[in-house]
Amino acid sequence: MFDFFCKDKNFGKILKKNIKKLFLIFFVFMFMFVGLAVILPPRYTSSTLLLPITSSPSLGELASLAAIAGLNIGQSGDINKIMAVLESRTIRKRIIEKLNLIPVLFPEEEKVSINKAIKVLGKKVKIKQDKNLNTIEIEVHTKDPVLSQKIANQYIIELRQLLNEKNLSVAKFDRVFLEKKLKEEEEKLIKLQKTLADFQKKTKLLNPDDELKNIFDTYLSLLNKRTELLMELSTLETTLSPDHPKVKAIRMQISFIDNTLKKFEEDNKFFPALKKLPDILTDYMDIVRKLKTEQEVYEVLLKMYQQAKFNESKEQLFVEVIDPPLLPDTQDLKPRIIVIAIGFFVSAILSVSTVVFTSCRKKES
């Protein structure tokens, strides 16, 4: 790497010859990096370990069989839902507002937007997912150990509330959809019931099936009776005079039957006209058919809705806190160790480069 400015290719010899200078430069640079690590602001880390727990009636046996086969279903989807909530802007916004973090995160600034605060909080929180153990770890890094613990605790609280509010489950979507459809079918059913009631008032028939049958039977009976009386009258008129009491009596019966039949054939206050009965029966059967269909649909939807509510009550997604966030009693040395480690390699490279470069420059001059 030094070929472009040094003609002497024996770099090992150069370094060996200037070993004291090499170590001196190395320790100077290392001292600078150690100093930088020392003056780094303190960082306290509070962490919590979460385990997603779900109760899904649709995955019970399937999940057991999959576990025997070495497969994992259900839990991965649950963790993804929880990770999405934890990494969302919504949960960070809630935490900032609940803990009033803007003055804490920006003590020297008077007006800070919530979006800026959300970004800064996101940098102070690290969320890690262990796909093998199906666990989630939340780490909060701040200058204040109490603040780190508070934020970690608030993450748990807000996570549970959001999961409860959103209720991210298939059963809920089914229940909401069926609830809407059930309401629509209920409105249709009430409308058809009102249509049937109006039809009954208009036609003066409460139970057309039985009442129309009785009307037809009565009408046919009167026609048969009229036919019998006409035949009897015809026989009597051959032997008796028109003024004979028997002939008059039969004629009166025939006249009464004719008047009664006329009432059947015209509208009256008791039942509709006979000529309208076929149309009335057709309309009635059409209303009843629609009403029965809607009742069946409503009953099926009601059963499905009740099952969806039951599934929703069982299909819950929440988290169990395995390791609660503790108050950190020591500083997190990881940033300092990283700075020192990087300083070691940078110091080595810089010290070697400086020794080789200065040696080559002296030889050229």
Notes on the structure:
The protein is an alpha+beta fold. It folds into 3 domains: 11-40 and 333-364; 44-169, FepE-like (Bacterial polysaccharide co-polymerase-like); 174-310, no CATH class. The chain is 69% helix and 9% strand. The protein has 13 helices and 4 strands. The chain has helices at residues 11-17, 19-39, 60-68, 75-86, 89-99, 102-105, 114-124, 145-166, 170-203, 208-237, 245-265, 277-314, 334-364; strands at 44-55, 125-130, 135-142, 316-323. It has a 4-stranded antiparallel β-sheet with strand order 2-3-1-4. Strand 2 and strand 3 form a beta hairpin. The chain is rod-shaped, with a radius of gyration of 47 Å. The two termini are 21 Å apart. Residues 57-74 have low confidence and may be disordered.
Which terms summarize this structure?
365 residues, alpha+beta, Bacterial polysaccharide co-polymerase-like, 3 domains, four-stranded antiparallel beta sheet, 13 helices, 4 strands
Overall morphology: rod-shaped
CA-CA gap between termini: 21 Å
Beta-strand level of the residues, as a percent range?
5-15%
Number of strands: 4
